[in-house]
Write a structure and sequence with these properties.
By secondary structure, the protein is of the alpha+beta class. It has 2 domains: about 30-90, DNA Methylphosphotriester Repair Domain, CATH 3.40.10; about 115-190, Beta-lactamase Inhibitory Protein, Chain:B, domain 1, CATH 3.30.1450. Helix content is about 35%, strand content about 25%. It contains 6 helices and 10 strands. A hairpin with a 4-residue loop joins strand 2 and strand 3. Helix 4 runs antiparallel to helix 6 and helix 5 packs parallel to helix 6 (about 135-140). It starts with a helix and ends with a strand.
């Protein structure tokens, strides 16, 4: 009888630990008064325990980090492993991130033979010289405005992405890719804000 009670106790303990680990995986939200950390000479903020956080760090509130233009670290703030999301990001960035993720997945299904280098760039929201318009749309979304010039040399386009501080600016990589330039539908360069 004691053995059965002991085994039952172990089973309950095991089930309790599984429930606890499931509970721990729920998303945690950072409020505007929560503390975040900024590495010197970086435009990114982190939470405690991030592997990218350096020894020389500055502490500030999340609200102040946003006011000073710091963007969230993808490894510690937005990763599924950490389950930590800022309320600021949840309202703005996360909605776009989910839309872009499904847009990218659909693009990958329609283009199964993409080179791995291009696929990685699209997955990370980056741009490479030589990408097509469709690949840039899959990576960065649609531009705010397109300026087009047609000449004897061909068709040149300047894509103006959504400006920082604008009503639709919810893209943490937006400063890197403010203007994207195409010659005959192929990326030749880009410019930051």
């Amino acid at each position: 009888m004691r053995v059965k009670i002991f085994i039952l106790g172990l089973v309950l303990l095991f089930l309790g630990s599984i429930a606890l680990s499931q509970e721990e995986k729920k998303t945690k939200f950072l409020g505007e008064d929560d503390l975040v950390f900024v590495n010197l000479k970086e435009e990114i903020f982190h939470v405690e325990g991030c592997p990218l956080l350096m020894k020389n760090k500055r502490t500030m509130t999340l609200k102040r980090a946003h006011e000073q233009g710091y963007k969230p670290c993808e490894k510690c703030i937005l990763s599924e492993e950490s389950g930590i999301i800022s309320t600021f990001i949840n309202e703005k960035y996360l909605g776009k991130a989910i839309r872009m993720k499904s847009f990218r997945e659909r693009y990958f299904e329609e283009h199964p033979n993409l080179p791995q280098k291009i696929k990685d760039a699209i997955q990370n929201g980056d741009i490479l010289i030589g990408m097509t318009r469709d690949q840039v749309r899959a990576s960065r979304g649609y531009p705010h405005k397109i300026n087009k010039t047609t000449s004897a040399a061909g068709v040149h386009e300047q894509w103006i992405m959504h400006p920082p501080g604008g009503p639709r600016y919810d893209d943490y990589k937006g400063k890197e890719y403010g203007y994207i330039y195409f010659d005959d539908g192929i990326v030749t360069s880009w410019q930051s804000w």
